[in-house]
Amino acid sequence: MTTEIHPVDHELVRAATDVARTRCRGDNHTMAAAARARDGRVITAVNAYHFTGGPCAELVLIGTAAALGAYELDTVVAVGDRDRGVVPPCGRCRQVLLDYFPSLRVIVGAGDRIRAVRVADLLPDSYVWADHQPDAD
After folding, report:
1. What residues have CB less than 8 Å from 76, skipping those under 6 apart?
2. Would you name the residues annotated as active-site residues?
3. Tens digit of pLDDT per residue, the chain (137 long)?
4. Cα gap 120→94, rounded to integer Å
């Protein structure tokens, strides 16, 4: 498998880092995410940790984007609080991001190895949720 690399959207990394530093406080909010909508807007969100599971920052971001009328996202990144830097999405988030935005780019890596890859490259041979949906014709 060849992973397709895209240019890194450093503005998104800065936006998520700023939210992680200023809005993540305590154990309930430890991750921030930022995404660029197809129309150019940058949308941010934080996770909502709860011992029962709670949504990751990427999942909160999907809902926030929809609430703002941004249904197409181009690139996403998650950043940890306490200067942990870029954190790759968990398996559940990879699957959900792929289902919602199959052409999405995800920023992963650390330091000088930061890169943006297609979400499908993070979850090869995955289940495709749309495969079980009836044709929209």
Report:
1. 12, 33, 34, 35, 36, 58, 61, 89, 97, 104, 105, 106, 107
2. 58
3. 456 678 899 999 999 999 999 999 889 999 999 999 999 999 999 999 988 888 999 999 999 999 999 999 999 999 999 999 999 999 999 999 999 999 999 999 998 899 999 999 998 887 776 665 566 55
4. 8
Strands (DSSP E) found in the chain: 5-6, 31-37, 42-46, 73-80, 85-86, 105-108, 115-118
Alpha carbons within 13 A on the beta-carbon side of 62: 14
Short-list 100, 111, 45, CA closest to 74? 100
User: For the whole model, what pTM was predicted?
Assistant: 0.88
